[in-house]
Amino acid sequence: MTETTVPSRPVRPAAPPPPALGGLGLFTVLLAAALPLIDFFIVNVALPAIGADLSASEAVLELVVVGYGVAYAVLLVLGGRLGDLFGRRRLFLGGMAAFGVTSLACGLAPDAWSLVAARVAQGASAAAMLPQVLATIQATTSGARRAKAMGLYGATAGLSMVAGQILGGVLVAADIAGTGWRSAFLVNVPVVLLGLLLAVRAVPETRATRPEPVDLPGTVLLAASLLTLLVPLTEGRAAGWPPWTWLSLAAFPFVAAAFYAVERGADRAGRTPLVPPSLFAITSLRRGLLLIVPFSIGFSGFMFVIAVALQRGAGLGPVDAGLALAPLAVVFFLCSLAGPRLVARYGTRVVPAGAVLQGVGLALMTLAAWRSWPDLGLVELLPGAAVAGAGQALQLPVVFRIVLSEVPPARAGVGSGVMITTQQSSLALGVATLGSLFLSLVPGLGMRDALITTLLVQLAAVALTGLLSLRLPRTLD
Predict the structure, then answer these.
(1) How many other C-beta atoms are found inside a 10 Å radius of the C-beta of residue 84?
(2) Euclidean distance between CA atoms 381 and 384, whole angstroms
(3) What is the pLDDT of residue 14?
(4) Helices (H), 241-349
(5) Which residue, 96, 167, 175, 157, is CA-closest to 129?
(6) At a CB cut-off of 8 Å and minimum separation 6, what does 422 contact?
(7) Whole-model pTM?
(8) Which helix (H) or strand (E) is 115 found in, with range?
(9) For FRET with 161, which of 14, 155, 198, 434 sits at 20 to 30 Å CA-CA?
(10) Region 68-97: what's the mean pLDDT?
(11) Concatenated DSSP letters for 394-422?
(12) What is the CA radius of gyration of the chain?
């Protein structure tokens, strides 16, 4: 009896596993994540020196802050989509190199308007670089490694926002080689060179499995929506609220509605719009983004207001004004390291607990301003800043994890772009709203009462974050 040989079916090779992000690669992307946030806040304590050196008006100085923030916010989602399309490592390297070049241009700017233009370009380069950080983490980690990486990302983001203000004060006062405020930008250049060397070696290439082409109508309408809202709010007070500011604000809801309609139509047609409305069907993402808005508005507004109050009102130099927030930074960092263990034990209940702590810390700082003004500095702010830092550390890193916890890896770039755009737009709104409120109250109330009133408004924003955090998912993978 002869055996019949059954031809075997060819074995289809298994899909290669996604590349893993090692420790050096994680350090590199977190270094890149720190740079744009540091540079958003680093100018707060440098603005008086910039204004004196370049003879810049208050409106132009606000553009130094706003130009960076608006360009950054407007292009973030596009940066995430381009990373999905052309490769995240490629966009990461290009964005980081451009960030170094534009930082050099900021540091060498001969006049105020050249500095504004360089800051806009710096914000655009940051928008190409930063979305690749979260998208790379999402695509190259899983399980406990992803939880650790996201926790470190949140800690890095929060610490960078405070460290930027401290670093700005130190660099301006140090006046390295007579550079003055310029060193606040020039310091980025060696850091970028180090980051590029490390990225070439340690950051793996990833991209979406089925990348979609760029959504040009969505990109234009998103940019128009953010510009019609952020530019008049940030420039209106200094410019005296001319008619164009009111016309721009009036146009915002109509432009935003047009953006949503175009994106919804593209989503229903099976295309991938710039910001897919279907992405907001993910409950964890939707509720997490809602919490990020008041948190970021309050945080950036506080950082701007306290920098102005301590320098113009309390008479502190840039170093002392920056170091007054050192307790917040130190406690934030230490508590954020314990965050993953606390989440593993208590779930997302740590977020409302953090909101309570932040509120207590803010109340203590308000009390210090009321009792000690104008002798307000590191010692007087220490208790409140330390408690507030602990509260913020229990919120921000955890919320970042929640937002992206259920986003599919194929949409990692889009999801991270949407989250960072929400955060960055809210940071710019905080400076525009709380900053403008504070500066408009100073002539009538005086510096102390204007500061106290603004801090009480921020306290209301903290209460809102606490209420919103009660709706977050109870567990987190």
Answers:
(1) 28
(2) 6
(3) 47
(4) 243-268, 283-308, 318-323, 326-346
(5) 96
(6) 289, 292, 293, 296
(7) 0.81
(8) helix 112-140
(9) 198
(10) 86
(11) TTHHHHHHHHHTTS-GGGHHHHHHHHHHH
(12) 23
